[in-house]
Amino acid sequence: MSKRFLKQYCTKSFRKIRHRKGFGVHSPFAYNLITKVIEETCSYYAYQQVEDVWRTQICNRLTPDDFQLRKPISEKYGKLLFRLVNRFRPETIFEYKSSWGISTLYLYLGNPRARLFCAEPDPYVFNFSKKVLTQEKQNISFENFNFPEGLSEYLTTTKDTGFICIHRLSEGSEYDSVYKYLSLYLNDNTILFVEGIRSDNTALNAWYKFISDERIRVTMDLFDAGIAVCNPKLNKQDYIVAF
């Protein structure tokens, strides 16, 4: 086991001891989000539906090269996306980089009434994901865009940035670019989910910029991903969560 992975394993193990079940969290909002959304273990109606789509329409069509091109979102984080959207009920959702359509389905089922816009920069992943989901889901839009183009197109249809989901990026420098661009459009209703915040030091430094932004009131560090909430009624606080 490399030193990097050993360090990550020890850090996650320590978190499970110190930061579970809302221990030490005094904010009712944060406590409920941790215990009733992030750490929720109950089975939801959508989980089996997603599993069926994954098994019958996606995993059996992906090749080993496809898995190298784009690693599918884990079941753990996919279910978390569903619970977050189901909790906040945003009217609009922006997703950057679909995980072969399965992550998009988790987001969609969290609130089927929301308008969901997915910007996918890779043409191959874009075509695959679009064929999987848009046949019967009229309020899901797929576009072959990079991040700035996709977010700009999304913002032509909504006044609020709503729920923003950023999947794992290829390079750490991309996280800094995403923050700089997103920072122009943050508003009171913005909720962010960012994967891969510890993929390298540049990605982590970009996440610290989210934490220090005064418009972002509550951040939750899940180690492999981060959640940020911009509600101005909340006290500013950063939480470490064992997940």
What does this structure look like?
The mean pLDDT is 89. The relative contact order is 0.13. The chain has an 8-stranded mixed beta sheet with strand order 3-2-1-4-5-7-6-8, with helices on both faces. The chain has a single domain, classed as 3-Layer(aba) Sandwich (Rossmann fold), CATH 3.40.50.150. With 243 residues, the protein is α/β, with parallel strands linked by helices. 47% of the residues lie in helices and 15% in strands. Helix 6 (102-110) links the parallel strand 1 (92-96) and strand 2 (115-119).
Corresponding CATH architecture: 3-Layer(aba) Sandwich
Briefly note the CATH topology name: Rossmann fold
How many DSSP-defined strands? 8
Number of domains: 1
The main sheet comes to: 8 strands, mixed
Element string (H = helix, E = strand): HHHHHEHEHEHEHEHEEE
SSE diagram, text form:
Elements (H helix, E strand, L loop, with lengths): L2 H16 L9 H11 L6 H14 L5 H6 L5 H14 L3 E5 L5 H9 L4 E5 L3 H11 L6 E4 L3 H9 L7 E4 L5 H11 L8 E5 L5 H12 L5 E4 L3 E5 L7 E4 L3
Parallel strand pairs: 1-2, 1-4, 2-3, 4-5, 6-8
Antiparallel strand pairs: 5-7, 6-7
